[in-house]
Amino acid sequence: MDQCGNYFLEDLQRLGRGGFGEVYEVNVYNLQKTHSKRYARKYFSPSPENNNTKLKEIADLRERFLVEIKTQCTLNRINYDSIAPIVLFSTAGDKPYFVMEKADCNLVEAIKAGMSAEDKIKSVIQIILGIKTIHDHEYVHRDLKPANILQYSDGRYKISDFGLVKDLNQVRAEIKTKFQPNGMGTDGYRAPEITESGLFSVQSDIFAIGQVISDIYSSDRTDKLKKVISKCREHWPENRYVDANELLVDFCKAMGVAP
User: Fold this and answer.
1) Which is nearest to 123 in space by CA: 99, 101, 140, 144?
2) What is the CATH number of the domain that holds 53?
3) 223 shares a domain with 109
4) Residues 131 and 179 in one domain
5) How many independent structural domains does the chain possess?
6) pLDDT in tens, 128-176
7) Are 147 and 107 a contacting pair, CB within 8 Å?
8) Which domain holds residue 246?
9) Would you say 97 and 44 are in contact if contact means Cβ atoms under 8 Å apart?
10) What pTM does this model have?
11) Does 95 share its domain with 111?
């Protein structure tokens, strides 16, 4: 058990790990240890499989992890409804971490379990609003996919995992390294221009949203919805939606609901 500010944390079971991080279910106690609640704690923890990663690259990834914490905290304060909240964090030592509210499931699991028509519409709108917040504040997520979208007990879907976030504000940007872990992004959700030239823009996230919508509506797409998905997934960025707001308007029109 370790302490973070006015709380004690006790790791329980490991929930999963990626190439450079692992997530545990954690009990968070008050100082008197009379009350606790379960959360999820993500550590910066390079996998043993990445032993060939250079020390400089590990340092760069640790820096990126710290920026992930800062960015997600900033964006969640702006849009609590669509960005996954961080409640505690520590940047000290070799193993920094942050603690998030524990989600019921991710979007992959929600799709597999079956989503109602209402839940599908709600999830897409919340995802688009989350991306709108990210883009409005000059960031690009760069790894939007169902596994990085979490569903909470109140039914809301929130965007998480800002490990590859790109700050488009050159004055504010903190990541100076050119190291790109895992080729940046995920196959199937990675826009063509990323693979072809390594370039990113808000339209790269729009491409990924199109695939996420396609995943949610895998078998019940109207012709209008097919057009929305196709426009998101155009090969050339300039042929996609200009921004998330334009996408939101078209999606709501296609589904016959108010934005």
Assistant:
1) 144
2) 3.30.200.20
3) yes
4) yes
5) 2
6) 999 999 999 999 999 999 999 999 999 999 999 998 899 998 767 655 5
7) yes
8) 105-255
9) yes
10) 0.90
11) no
